[in-house]
Give the backbone structure.
Amino acid sequence: MIRDHFRVLVMDLAAGKGKVVRVDGRDEVAGGSGLGALLFAKYGRIDKPWDDPEQPVIFTIGPLTGYFPLMSKTVAAFKSPYHDQYAESHAGGRSALALKFADLDALVLTGKAPRPSALVVGSRHLELKEVHYLWGKDIQESGKLLRRMFKGSGHRSILRIGPAGENKSAMAGINVDTYRHFGRLGGGAALGAKNIKAVVIIGDGSFPLMEGKDYPRLFQAVYEKLTATDMMQKYHNLGTPVNVAVLNKLKALPWRNLQATSDENAHGISGERFAETALLRNAACAGCPVGCIHIGFSRERFQTDHRFFYRQVSYDHEPIFAAGSMLGVTDCFAVLDILDVVEQMGLDVMSAGVALAWATEALEKGVITEKETLLPLRFGDHNTYEKAVQHLAYGVNDFYRLLAQGTLKAAAHYGGADFACVLGQEMAGYATGEVFFASQALGFRHSHLDAGGYAYDQKHDDQDVGKAVEFLVTDEASRAFLTSMVACLFARGVYTDELLAECLQVVGYGALAGSIDAVSRRIQQLRWQTRLATGFDPAAVSIPKRFTEVVTWKGKVDGEFLAVLKNEYARRIAEMARREDHP
Amino acid sequence: MKILTTPRLERCIGCHSCSLACARLVHGRLSWDMAGIRIASSGGLSTGFEARICLACNPAPCAAACPTGAYAQRRGGGVIVRKKLCIRCGDCAHACPVGAVYLDPGGEPFVCLHCGRCVPYCPHDCLEMKEVGGGPADKAAAPEEAA
């Protein structure tokens, strides 16, 4: 449905009642990321901690969701348990189309359910169901039960948390439809703090389309562009894991807690190896013909006789980095075994893998002992890591409870901050150099996707601070608009501003179509203002020493250049947030 | 006469491009449901996908059940739909043995017309228009009409 405003369901979990609210601002903030910040301003409390029952957990979609291919993502906005500041995390699956067909631009959860509960929303349905019997169940088992308990198979999305979210781990993600995740910055704990085990979104609404042939014609053109590009081929073929061998060869793949950037055994976890030996099939987010999801299998022999069970586990470059190279694990099936446990626990894999890599080096160096880790963590020993992942999710002792709040929090207590691979949060799988390190350390989501810093490193040999920071700021604005539509960022090469303007125009958002640049900057500014209002100080961000010891294909990282870049980017962020005028 | 078939549905990745194309191009809607082909996971996403689609019965039980002639036998299987004649009784949906007819909240039925407009949108070539011979009901089939 095309509206000049937002239709938002605000659910009071304490009362068990919801209200549909009309929120203005479509032409100012578009949707997605922009709408998340707008709704946080309306419902969030900057003066209260992340787990205060009043804090909202917000899910938003955009003006093009469902209308065009790859407009298939949902933005989750919440105050993060990781840094107690405003945060976003993004996921696909069926979540975006399900919200669209539930006739909602956003879902806002406020208050705290009195008992563990599942929220079920649809275009003609709203129910808060008490589900204490699901509390404690892992992602797979709770998923199976939820599928049986609620209607709408195929045309619904099931968001759920695992034990990590229930235990309020700052590394807990929200699982979406088994294979996708709101992974980063602790969204799972934000739901757990509200006693929400699951959110089931039933996409049972339908809308009339614009009359005439312009829309189907443009859809066809966009569809052809998206399915004819190299991008389609890349994601159809090996998927993102193609990066493993590429980065390793480039000396840009973090190994064993970033003690190295390449390893001769990388072929054991390369995209090629996964595809040849472990790939079962592919899957897609609803509304995306690309289908980048790669699903491998993990099987376990549970008797001396040849008796096995198996599970299907999705993999990508980032999970392979986090559970593979970062932990020194060089066998693709061993990686999948770890990923399977991470999935069942409902942890963010990047955070968990990087945290355990730090713990391993800290144990090696004697900074901590087995009294803390309870296990003889050793790079390459995947069986031990499977157990450690569970310890982390359940928070079995003080050490794991602290580690689950963030590697630097554990390092502040035990020591070893110099080699904590933290850039705002646990690092992503790119050791490409200074621009990426500054980009993730300061980026809004502390994500490799905030801006293309890793690509900039690969394309530029110069050390032009002004040019690099200008790139980060400009690229971030452009991505902030895309994540307000809400597009999958894999489609960013196709969805240029010109094409987005055409798409917005044809579905009836003419004002947005004519003001993309201004709206992009406004969303960027609004997000930073919200983040800084909740306590973020860009000038105070520090980058651990380990990142200055990294050697890439360019040689050793230049610590001075990194420091200047970081300071200049921090200055620009503060400047964006300070500006009072909306561009 | 051709019918829509799903000979390679094991390749399905659940992108819903087919359903969305049918809703968009045939019914002028943005919808997961108002479409002649609808995709669902067959018992959870880990077990793959199935398509809810008209199997082109010949004779078609939905046509036999329709009291007004809104659903009439199509030559080669399936039905010709005349929306203007529909009284929204839902008998067609109840008569379909494989759940291929979707009733919207107002009772309007949606079923595959075997037009094939969804086929080019499948990225894995799961769908195919297939030529079929006449079935037993063809002798008594209604003349073909636009839906």
Q: What stands out?
A: Chain B touches chain A through 31 residues (CB under 8 Å). Residues 141-147 of chain B have pLDDT under 50 and may be disordered. The CA atoms of residues 26 and 117 of chain B lie 8 Å apart.
